[in-house]
Amino acid sequence: MSTLTSGGAVAPGTEAPAYPTDRGGCPFRQPAGLAEFRDRAPVARATFASGREGWLATGHAEVRAILRDPRFSVRIPGSLHESADVVKHLPGRGSLLWQDGEEHDSDRRLLAREFTVRRMNLLRPNIQRIVDEHIDRMLAARAPVDLVKMFAVPVPSAVISDLFGVPEDVREDFQSGAEAMMALNTDPEALAAAGMRVSMIVYQVIQRKRAEPGDDLISGLLALPDPEGVLTDEFLVTMASTLLIAAHDTTACMIGLGTALLLDNPDQLALLRERPDLVPGAVEEMLRYLSIAQRGAERVAVEDVEIAGVTIKAGDQVAVHIPGANLDPAISEGAEDFDVTRRPTPHVAFGFGSHQCIGQQLARIELQVVFETLLRRLPGLALAKPIDQIPFRDEMVFYGVHELPVTF
Ligand code: HEM
């Protein structure tokens, strides 16, 4: 039996209710039980797929409060969403996602010098060229084609590989390793092997860049002054692997899932075709509504924290639910609905606080170019199969579609 008290704690002698995962037939909606959790308590106890109990934060204000609070660490002992036998191998220094405090801030500052808004904006013409080339290839193929395979995956892969100077001959190998690392149900050995493969590829790229520097981000990092000797091969491999993986899967998922969403919502699609000036706002709305970081972020309290009427004790783990926060009615009226004309919202699709996504400007530019160009150049774009026959990525860290057969 499960009973939550009004504050979100569990009544003595009862179990916490199960973390909801069933999207109830509509692949674009979040699990119905999520709103119930939030209505009952924005921070509540839940039982996760690992079999363990933890806290589930679903309110927008509470999610932001936790993500900016230094009393929560990213160094979780194991994910609440993975089966208990998946052992977390925390990478060493250089992986921002697994670092706290001053070490994280100083490594992030280092990277931020190479990841400026100016540099990202300069990439726009190259992104447009890459998008156009991939649309040309789709048009040259005989429809139906799989938009994921021909467009959603290779476009971000080419963009980030160009930015990092990854040579053509290893791009495909890198992509398959990165994908294996992002599956929620990958067995521990396969996960470790994929991690090793990705690190080896990145190591080789770094060696090539040391010998022959170019105009790319890795060469830029290698050229930074380094009086304290932080920029070792190990540090660079960890940092570059984290970035490359974070950049590949996320943007690819947004392109595939965002296209499926538009094709399943003909009114919104027609509006965007008529008014391409709405595309930047529509991208924000897709980021918010789809919230592809479907299980959110995870943190562990390093000291007792009072929030929303409950005490999260030191050592307790919290699933900080990004979709829950982004669909909170407090963020915008009718937040459960998809509306490309929605006024800007303070969504947390890129996280919040010190770990907020460092690649968000790049992702935004890519998605804006992708959707503007896709709608302009493929006026007849349509699903080649009914939506209920499309395989969705329920089992992956980032939600999306495994394939999207389309005609044009
Ligand atoms: C639509 C695409 C993307 C989405 C939805 C997304 C989402 C996120 C989220 C939610 C976080 C915060 C995780 C946490 O707090 O635990 C994050 C962090 C991060 N993202 Fe992204 N991301 C996207 C694209 C990218 C791209 C293109 C890059 C790199 C070029 C990137 C690199 C990173 C890195 C390095 C972090 C860790 C930052 C830190 O810990 O300081 N992401 N992302």
From TrEMBL:
Residues 1-27 are annotated as: Disordered. Pfam families: p450. One of its GO terms (molecular function) is monooxygenase activity. Keywords: Heme, Iron, Metal-binding, Monooxygenase, Oxidoreductase. The keyword Iron applies. InterPro entries: Cyt_P450, Cyt_P450_B, Cyt_P450_CS, Cyt_P450_sf. Belongs to the cytochrome P450 family. This is Cytochrome. It comes from Actinokineospora bangkokensis. The lineage of its organism: Bacteria, Bacillati, Actinomycetota, Actinomycetes, Pseudonocardiales.
